[in-house]
Design goal:
The protein is globular. The chain has a single domain (about 10-20, about 25-330), classed as 3-Layer(aba) Sandwich (Rossmann fold). The protein has helices at about 35-40, 55-70, 125-135, 150-165, 180-195, 220, 230-245, 280-290, 315-330, 335-340, and strands spanning about 80-85, 90-95, 105-110, 135-140, 175-180, 205, 265-270, 295-300. It is about 35% helix and about 15% strand. By secondary structure, it is an alpha/beta fold. It has an 8-stranded mixed β-sheet with strand order 1-2-4-3-5-6-7-8, sandwiched between helices. Helix 3 packs across helix 9 (about 315-330) and helix 4 (about 150-165) crosses helix 5 (about 180-195). It is built from 10 helices and 8 strands. Strand 3, helix 3 (about 125-135) and strand 4 form a beta-alpha-beta unit.
């Protein structure tokens, strides 16, 4: 859950964990200047959102919408956004004027710990990927907790995928992507589709996925104060309870790390070495590989949760380029598709 507002921390006042100088890890010398500048701001994980206070939640969502979208001009992106509904779910289609329609599509599930974010707020990552690949990205505005706990978000994601298929989308030319909570939701969506005997997308792109809401991963504790974006105790514990509600957090459709991955499509998993959710990625990758899934896993040294959205960090540019390469390799072009 990326509550951090780049350069705009003063916009929110949920309270922060005060990391002492003794607790802070040294910044690796090989990081880009942009990444070093980020750490020089001494970012603190934003915590303490009272999910029982609906007014506070609404205000937080509005502030996040404004702040996250404000990053776009900093990276020189002005995408075309087309907002409509699919299967009764709001979506935001992100594209560029130079794109040609060759049937390829990325469906994106945003992060925000299942309680904040939207298809319009979480714009930087899908806009960057659409720009890098020339492929439109359909961002899904799934329902959020605490108003709509599990399985509401999963139902919305599955409904959009199935409707897109019914409209003629070739699953071989579709990649499902998510970051943070959206990464966990992307996994759960693919698992649910498999359970329903619905054809799976060509590949999955998972950015710092939140795959375990039970807090059983090692780095949930060991990197609790290394991650400048989130902590488990202050940022994720409340949303985990709110999303699961009365359901068991070990349910594989809530915590996909507990799922069986036999028959799942190829995956790209990216994570930072300092993020509290690193073990969520490590355990997922190990389990998927044991099931025979082709997984590309990259851990970026010294980087934080969903660093790919940060303007100015060379590591973010490299990670986006890697994503674009993976997506383009996963889906046949129009010419290649005509030969099948």
């Amino acid at each position: 859950m990326t509550f951090l507002l780049p350069g705009c921390l003063a916009l929110l006042s949920w309270g922060c964990v005060e990391n002492s100088d003794d607790a802070a890890l040294p910044v690796p010398a090989e990081l880009s200047q942009g990444a070093k500048d980020f750490y020089a701001l001494r970012p603190q994980p934003i915590e303490g959102l009272d999910l029982d206070d609906r007014e506070a939640v609404a205000n937080a969502r509005a502030a996040i919408e404004e702040a996250w979208r404000a990053v776009l001009p900093n990276i020189g992106l002005t995408p075309i956004e087309d907002q409509f509904e699919i299967a009764g779910v709001k979506v935001n289609l992100i594209s560029w004027p130079t794109m040609r329609d060759d049937g390829r599509l990325v469906i994106y599930l945003h992060g925000g710990a299942y309680v904040v974010g939207s298809a319009t707020a979480n714009i930087v990552l899908p806009a960057r990927l659409a720009n890098a690949t020339g492929i439109p990205v359909l961002s899904v505005d799934y329902r959020l907790a605490p108003e709509s706990p599990f399985p509401a978000a999963l139902e919305d994601a599955v409904a959009v995928l199935r409707d897109v298929y019914e409209q003629g989308q070739d699953p071989r030319k579709l990649v499902l992507m998510g970051d943070s909570a959206g990464g966990g939701l992307a996994l759960a969506t693919a698992l649910k589709l498999r359970q329903m005997h619905v054809e799976l997308p060509a590949a999955l792109v998972l950015i710092s996925p939140w795959t375990d809401l039970t807090r059983s991963g090692d780095t949930n504790a060991t990197l609790e104060f290394a991650d400048p974006i989130i902590t488990w105790s202050g940022t994720l514990a409340g949303p985990a309870r709110a999303y699961a509600a009365d359901a068991d957090t070990a349910n594989p459709l809530i915590s996909p790390v507990y799922a069986d991955y036999a028959g799942m499509p190829p995956m790209l998993v990216q994570a930072g070495s300092r993020e509290v959710l690193l073990s969520d990625s490590v355990r997922l990758v190990r389990k998927a590989r044991r099931a025979g899934v082709d997984v590309r896993f990259d851990v970026w040294d010294g980087m934080w949760h969903v660093f790919q959205t940060h303007p100015g960090a060379a590591e973010a540019e490299e990670a986006i380029a890697e994503m674009a390469e993976f997506v383009l390799d996963a889906m046949p072009s129009a010419g290649a598709a005509s030969d099948r």
